[in-house]
Design brief:
Helices cover 66% and strands 3% of the residues. With 243 residues, it is mainly alpha-helical. It has 3 domains: 58 residues, no CATH class; 67 residues, Winged helix-like DNA-binding domain superfamily/Winged helix DNA-binding domain (Arc Repressor Mutant, subunit A, Orthogonal Bundle); 54 residues, Arc Repressor Mutant, subunit A. β1 and β2 form a beta hairpin.
Length: 243
């Protein structure tokens, strides 16, 4: 191969490299004008400006373009930020304070959604922050009205022997929707058997009192537990006979 042929080949190679670099730079400028950003390369740009993105420095040197690295996975904070509604950032100091208080409350015991909302608002957390936080807690499973209602009914039934009516009233005070309350109450045992157990305990504890006093006190207790009047009377009379 002659010297002139070698020079012509080098010139063509240099022109090809320059053409590739110009095209790559044009593409970067086009992306920049449309708001897109690329990954920065290791070397500087040919005009001494910002580093060339995505392997362009290698093109400028005449090397094959390096593959553009994949975008890094979103962080947990970015995932949470994307999930938050209403423009509330997870880095908002108010959001952080409300979240800390809510988690402390939930660590102490389960709460109904509306119950927790009322408590947070009473602590003067902003309403939009509270609503966003509750949505996030619900999505993560830390707030679940159906699960709360089922556990609340079971615990109150066992510890205080409350009637269906009394349990329904307490669920309403907690802000549980009616449909959720009815689902939690639908499988409860017969009211009369529970009322009788309550009445029998009361009758035995008042065995040294006059009959009328025992009846009055037994009926009063059953009424406070929310049992219907007919059930109260039947259970109280039977309990006094059996005690």
């Amino acid at each position: 191969m002659s010297t002139s042929d070698a020079h012509r080949r080098e010139d063509r190679s240099a022109e090809a490299v320059l053409a590739a670099a110009r095209q790559a730079i044009d593409e970067v400028m086009a992306r920049s004008s449309s708001g897109a950003t690329g990954d920065s390369g290791a070397a500087g740009s040919p005009d001494g400006g910002a580093p060339l993105p995505g392997g362009l420095a290698g093109v400028w040197r005449g090397a094959e373009p390096a593959p553009v690295p994949a975008a890094p996975a979103a962080s947990d904070a970015e995932d949470e930020s994307a999930a938050l509604a209403g423009g509330v950032s997870p880095d908002d100091p108010e959001y952080k304070r409300a979240k800390k208080r809510a988690l402390n409350m939930l660590a102490a015991r389960d709460h109904a959604t509306e119950e927790l909302r009322s408590k947070l608002l009473r602590k003067e957390h902003p309403e939009d922050v509270v609503d966003t936080l509750l949505d996030r807690l619900t999505a993560s499973g830390l707030l679940d009205d159906e699960q709360f209602a089922a556990g609340f009914v079971r615990a109150r039934r066992e510890s205080r022997a409350l009637s269906v009516r009394a349990l329904r009233q307490e669920l309403t005070k907690k802000g549980i929707p009616e449909s959720v309350s009815e689902h939690a109450l639908e499988d409860l045992d017969d009211e009369y058997d529970l009322a009788y157990e309550v009445a029998l305990k009361k009758a035995r504890s008042t065995a040294n009192l006059p009959h009328d006093t025992r009846l009055r006190r037994t009926l009063g207790m059953l009424a406070r537990r929310g049992f219907p009047q007919s059930v109260c009377m039947a259970a109280a009379r039977r309990a006094l006979e059996d005690a």
